[in-house]
Every structure is written in structure tokens, then in C-alpha cells.
Write a structure and sequence with these properties.
Number of strands: 26
Largest sheet: 8 strands, parallel
Keywords: Acetylation, NADP, Oxidoreductase
Protein name: NADP-dependent oxidoreductase domain-containing protein
Strand order of the largest sheet: 3-4-5-6-9-10-11-12
Domain NADP-dependent oxidoreductase: 40-295, 414-561
Pfam families: Aldo_ket_red
Bound molecules: NADP nicotinamide-adenine-dinucleotide phosphate
Distance between the termini: 65 Å
Shape: globular
GO molecular function, one term: oxidoreductase activity
Structural class: alpha/beta
Length: 637
């Protein structure tokens, strides 16, 4: 090894910052925020700043900047860190490339983040999409990077962005930009880890004074879009981790810092957040470090490389009849729908029990399909496929559909729905779409904005059913923990729900996770009674008392999470008990399996045996237990 290189590496041993071409410093480890649910990101930010992080990597497209903003305010108000000690990055989304849209987009981000400036503002992709459109091939329009960059430069001049840069730019695109830039880009944020080391781009950046910042530094193991395990399970990484007594994640992050670029690991887990920044007071020795340059290179992001290239996106557009593209934060997901994946199930015999029709009547007069597709825990990268497939499959034999759409992933669901409508697979009026008011919005003043955000994400005018997620209220932007509980005024929230119903935005309104006591007190004050109470219910937790109350008050009992094994028995049991069931799956085979509950039945003697099953409540929602509000005990829930 060259002596100067050895010295440089040694001096990087403690590199907590790198210097940008603006003279400012960028912390070498930042917290990624992509695919961090709004409900947990606030706590992750707070934990990370307490643990020593000073760099937070955000983007408008991550749809959680508001929650990041709440957490940053808390961090600053409590004196954990001063604003000037933090380095906040955000990104201009592809639909806002028009020069006149650039300042408006940043203003929105600044409002959400509750700050007057960002430390770094990046053009997220060298791609432009139609305004307000989804991230798919057909929405690509020619970009004019020089014009967009000039607008970015004005933000830099105005001090609203203390540094400006780009993301997902190849060396060719960077060279084109440098040729016209008055203010050269300070940063190029790209995928970078030991399995995709960006040798050529790194050399270009070093030669031109541009700092390389590494996204997906761990290989994005939680994302469905990447080859799982490619980075953290790589033998070179694992061997180094074993020798150094560190975790593979720490080794790849330290490798990045030692290479001379900042790293942006995402985690919402307290332990991993802390571990990921523990990369400063040790280093990878030269012999082990050298092994990393022998690693075979492969970009782990399935389509990131092609997504950064307009031509390839245009090629995708040419086959778009077979392709559904939708964003999962940063990358284009392309899902080919082969006829075999969507083949219709064999013809069904008529339903066995008369009372077990394909739908149940609500007290609004509308009907609710007996089976819906749950989307909780579905990855953004697969939920669109699942919805498209589920609707197609169901359409063949029932002609009705129902979705349960919680607070995350709605954007992807919306894109899949729009595609279904555009393709003529189904009409809006044939779908039954349910969504929920999250605990953080459980106050009358938040209700209209919350449903509007959901409708915007889903690209819909109305919901068929809107539920109060539970009789619980949490502080804005916080995770479901009992210390985040606030007293909640259910009658006031319900009055706001009734207004949505009257305005036609929610064709039916209801509640979820309401016990008998909570439901009774609500029924005592409602003008519009709840149409539905959606609760956990399965053979092991049959909710007999609640079922009786619902029956006698005309509230339909809807069941979430009937995930007992064998799944079909649990589903069928639910149907035979006269309630609708909402199994979640994003796996096409399982979606079909879960629908296969109509042409058979559980015999009466077995049903009778199931009634004997000892009752156990599975949902351990400790955060819902609160001395003043919420539930007094878990059993009460
Ligand atoms: P990443 O940081 O490489 O990986 C994140 C995943 O790793 C999460 O599933 C996380 O789960 C898990 N994880 C975190 N720490 C871990 C550890 N110590 N051991 C094992 N697993 C661990 O991937 P990324 O989110 O794709 O990239 C990081 C950030 O870069 C993003 O969040 C975003 O801010 C930015 N980004 C930018 C672009 C762009 O186009 N500019 C594209 C992609 C990403 P837990 O949360 O459960 O810990």
C-alpha cells in the first residue's frame, strides 16, 4: 500500500465528518428515513440524536417528513441538540422538477420539518415526472436538469438550502451538470456498499470535489426490492466481522467511512440505531480492508440502475400493458403479471350456508364483502402486486372486493387501484375500500386532514368505510407506547367522523378495537351509529359478549387478523359465525388460498368443539392501557 494512502486511511480512523465543497461539514453517519413508518420514525429520530447522530436523511417522497419535523422540534426544544448542530438533508421529488415548482417543494419540506433551512437539498433522481403523477414509466416527461438546477441554485443563494446536490446521478450526468452549474453540486447520494462500491463514480467525484454519500449502505436488507442478504451475509463481510468482534452492519458502515464517504443506514430499532453509529473508535486493518476490493460487484437495487435512466424507463413504458410500476420510496418496481399468476380459480359451488352470503348488510344499507384483503405489514414493494392480483382473482367469482388500508402504504395501494381502474379490471363502485384514522389523529381537528391525506394517497373521492382505529390517542408522530398516550375525546372525534359521513367522504363510519364498554358509551352519544366494529376475532378469541352486543345494536362485527393455522379453517369458522374476515396476504398463492373458503364448511360437531376452545386474547397492545383513558387493563381491551 502506498504510504500516503495508509496515512490518509489512518487519519480517517476518526472521521466523524467530511468537508463539502461549500466549506460546511457533513456528518459521516446519518440516519436514513426511507420505509420508516410515520408511527415509528419520531421515536427513531429522537433516539438517534440522543445516541449521537447529527445527520438525518429525509425526502418528501418518504411521506414522513411531518413526523420527522415533530421529532426534530422535540429534540431541539428539549435541548438534546441545537438546530445548528444538526445536518438535515431533503430531496426534490421527480414531479417537482419544473423550476417554478422547486421553491414550492422546498417550502413544503421546510414546513413539515419545522425548520427555516435544510443543510443539503438534493435532486432525488435525474428523472422528471408529470406533476402530481405516480413514479411510473408512463409518467416520465423529458427533464431539463440545467433549468431545475438553476432553481436549486436560487435556493442556495437564498440560504434556504445551505448546500445543494444530486442523487442517483451517474458520472456522465454529473459531468453534464458540472458543465452548466454556477454552484457545483456538493454531494451525489447513490447506492453504495461493499457489493456495489461505485469505483468509477467515486473517482469522478473525488476529482471534482463532490462528496459521495452512500444510501442503502447495509444493502437495504428489509426491502423487497433488493437481493436479500447480499451485503450483510457476504463472506468477506462476515469474516471481517468475526475477526473484529463487530456486527456485519458495523463492518460495512465502517468500511464506508474508511473509504471516505458518508453512510446513511436506516433503522427504527433502538439497539440497531445505537450499534450503527458505533464505528468511530476502531477501524478495519489494511489486510482485511484490502479483501473488500476483491468483492464481485452487483447493484443490489433491482431496478435502481434502470430507473435512473430515462431511456430504460421509456422502454418499460413500451411494455406497460404487462407492467405495473409504482414507487417504493426510491426505486421503480416492475411487476410482470403473467397470466398464470392471475389465472382464475376453478368455478365455485354456491355458498353452503344461506346466511353466509358473499356480503353482509351494514346499518347504512350498504353491503360489506365477506372477505377483504388486509395490507398491514405488507411491504411497499409487493402490496401493489397483491392488490392487483387479489382484485383480479376475486373478480372472477364474486365481483366484489374490499380492502383494509392502514396508515402506511396507501400511496402504493392508490397507484395499484388507479391501474386497475384504468385497465378496466374493476370499477370504483364495485370495490369496498376501508381505511382508518390513526391514533395520532384521534382528535376532531385532525380528522378532516387525515381522511384527505388518505384519499389523496389512494387517489379516491370517497371511502366505503372509515374507522377510528382504536379508542386511543397518541401524541403526534410518536410510536404506540403508553408514555405517548393522550386523553382522547371519542364523542368529539366521532362528531368529526359524522361530518365526513355527511359530506360523503366516508360512505360508512365505524370503529375498531372497541370493547363492549367503549362501544356502549359511543352508542349513547352518536347521531350516526357506527356501522362496523373491526376487532381481532378467531376461534381462540371468539368475542362472544361483543358479538352479542353488536348483533343487538346493529353494528357489524368485522374481523381483522384471523391468522390462526390452518388459515382456511379459521377463516371459514369466522364466516360460519356470520362475520366478515380480513386475512392479510401479499402472496398470490395465499391470497387464493384464503379465498378458498366458500365451497366447503366446518361440520356442526366440529363447530361445536371449537366453541369449547379456551379463550385467549392475542393482541398485546400495552400502549392502549392508560390510567385515565384508553383501557384500564389488557383484558379490558
Ligand atoms: P439500509 O440502510 O441499507 O438498510 C435498512 C434496513 O436494514 C432496514 O430494514 C433496517 O431494519 C435494517 N437494519 C438497520 N440496521 C441494521 C443492523 N445493524 N443489522 C441488520 N439490519 C439492520 O437501506 P435503505 O433504507 O435502503 O437506505 C438507507 C437510507 O438511504 C434510506 O433510509 C434513505 O434515507 C436513503 N436512500 C436514498 C435513496 C435515494 O434515491 N437517494 C434510495 C434509497 C435509500 P430496522 O429499521 O428494523 O433496523
Amino acid at each position: 500500500m502506498h504510504a500516503a494512502e495508509g496515512q490518509r486511511r489512518h487519519s480517517r480512523k476518526m472521521a466523524r465528518h467530511f468537508v463539502l465543497n461549500t466549506g460546511a461539514t457533513i456528518p459521516s453517519v446519518g440516519l436514513g428515513t426511507w420505509q420508516a413508518d410515520p408511527g415509528v420514525i419520531g421515536d427513531a429520530i429522537y433516539t438517534s440524536v440522543k445516541a449521537g447522530y447529527r445527520h438525518i436523511d429525509c425526502a418528501q417522497a418518504y411521506r414522513n417528513e411531518k413526523e420527522v419535523g415533530f421529532a426534530l422540534k422535540k429534540v431541539i426544544d428539549e435541548g438534546v441538540a441545537k438546530r445548528e448542530d444538526l445536518f438535515i438533508t431533503s430531496k426534490l421529488w421527480c414531479t417537482n422538477h419544473a423550476p417554478e415548482d422547486v421553491p414550492v417543494a422546498l417550502e413544503g419540506t421546510l414546513n413539515d420539518l419545522q425548520t427555516d433551512y435544510v443543510d443539503l437539498y438534493l435532486i432525488h433522481w435525474p428523472l422528471r415526472m408529470k406533476k402530481g403523477a405516480g413514479f411510473s414509466a408512463e409518467n416520465v416527461i423529458p427533464s431539463d436538469i440545467p433549468a431545475t438546477w438553476a432553481a436549486m441554485e436560487r435556493l442556495f443563494d437564498a440560504g434556504k438550502a445551505r448546500a445543494i446536490g444530486v442523487s442517483n446521478f451517474s458520472s456522465k450526468k454529473l459531468a453534464d451538470l458540472l458543465a452548466v452549474a454556477r454552484v457545483p453540486p456538493a454531494v451525489d447520494q447513490v447506492e453504495c456498499h461493499p457489493v456495489w462500491q461505485q469505483g468509477k463514480l467515486r473517482a469522478f467525484c473525488e476529482a471534482n470535489g463532490i462528496h459521495l454519500s452512500a444510501y442503502s449502505p447495509l444493502g437495504s436488507p428489509g426491502s423487497t426490492m433488493v437481493k436479500a442478504g447480499a451485503v450483510l451475509e457476504h463472506p468477506v463481510v462476515v469474516a471481517a466481522a468475526e475477526k473484529l468482534g463487530k456486527t456485519p452492519a458495523q463492518v460495512v458502515l465502517r468500511w464506508g467511512v474508511q473509504k471516505g464517504h458518508s453512510v446513511l443506514p436506516k433503522s427504527t430499532n433502538e439497539e440497531r440505531i445505537k450499534a450503527n453509529i458505533d464505528v468511530y473508535d476502531w477501524s478495519i486493518p489494511d489486510d482485511l480492508f484490502a479483501k473488500f476490493s476483491e468483492i464481485e460487484q452487483a447493484s443490489s437495487t433491482t431496478t435502481a440502475a434502470s430507473a435512473s435512466d430515462v431511456q430504460k424507463l421509456e422502454t418499460l413504458a413500451a411494455v406497460r400493458d404487462n407492467v405495473l410500476t409504482f414507487p417504493a420510496g426510491d426505486c421503480v418496481i416492475c411487476s410482470l403479471f403473467s397470466p398464470s399468476r392471475l389465472s382464475s380459480p376453478t368455478s365455485r359451488r354456491s355458498l353452503f350456508w344461506g346466511s353466509m352470503a358473499g356480503s353482509f348488510a351494514l346499518n347504512t344499507g350498504a353491503s360489506i364483502p365477506a372477505i377483504g384483503l388486509g395490507t398491514w405489514h405488507a411491504q411497499p414493494g409487493v402490496v401493489g402486486d397483491a392488490i392487483y392480483a387479489a382484485v383480479k382473482v376475486v373478480l372472477f367469482f364474486q365481483g366484489w372486493h374490499r380492502f383494509f388500508t392502514p396508515f402506511c402504504l396507501l400511496f402504493q395501494v392508490g397507484l395499484a387501484l388507479t391501474k386497475l381502474f384504468q385497465d378496466g379490471v374493476v370499477k370504483r363502485e364495485d370495490l369496498f375500500i376501508t381505511s382508518k384514522l390513526w391514533y395520532c389523529n384521534n382528535a376532531p381537528e385532525y380528522v378532516p386532514e387525515a381522511i384527505q391525506t388518505t384519499l389523496d394517497d389512494l387517489q379516491l373521492e370517497y371511502l366505503d368505510l372509515y374507522l377510528i382505529h382504536g379508542p386511543i390517542r397518541l401524541k403526534k408522530g410518536t410510536a404506540p407506547l403508553s408514555e405517548n398516550s393522550l386523553p382522547c375525546d371519542i364523542p368529539a372525534t366521532w362528531a368529526a367522523m359524522e361530518k365526513l359521513h355527511e359530506a360523503g367522504k366516508a360512505r360508512a363510519i365505524g370503529v375498531s378495537n372497541f370493547s363492549c364498554r367503549k362501544l356502549e358509551s359511543l352508542l349513547a352519544v352518536t347521531r350516526v351509529p357506527p356501522a362496523v366494529n373491526q376487532v381481532a376475532c378467531h376461534p381462540g378469541w371468539q368475542q362472544a359478549k361483543l358479538r352479542d352486543l353488536c348483533k343487538s345494536t346493529g353494528v357489524h362485527l368485522s374481523v381483522a387478523e384471523p391468522q390462526r393455522t390452518p388459515a382456511q379453517v379459521a377463516l371459514r369458522w369466522g364466516l360460519q359465525m356470520g362475520q366478515s374476515v380480513l386475512p392479510k396476504s401479499t402472496d398470490v398463492a395465499r391470497i387464493k388460498e384464503n379465498l378458498d373458503v366458500f365451497d366447503w364448511c366446518i361440520p356442526e360437531e366440529l363447530m361445536a368443539e371449537m366453541l369449547e376452545i379456551e379463550q385467549v386474547k392475542l393482541l398485546r397492545a400495552e400502549f392502549g392501557v392508560h390510567p385515565v383513558d384508553g383501557y384500564k387493563s389488557l383484558e379490558d381491551l
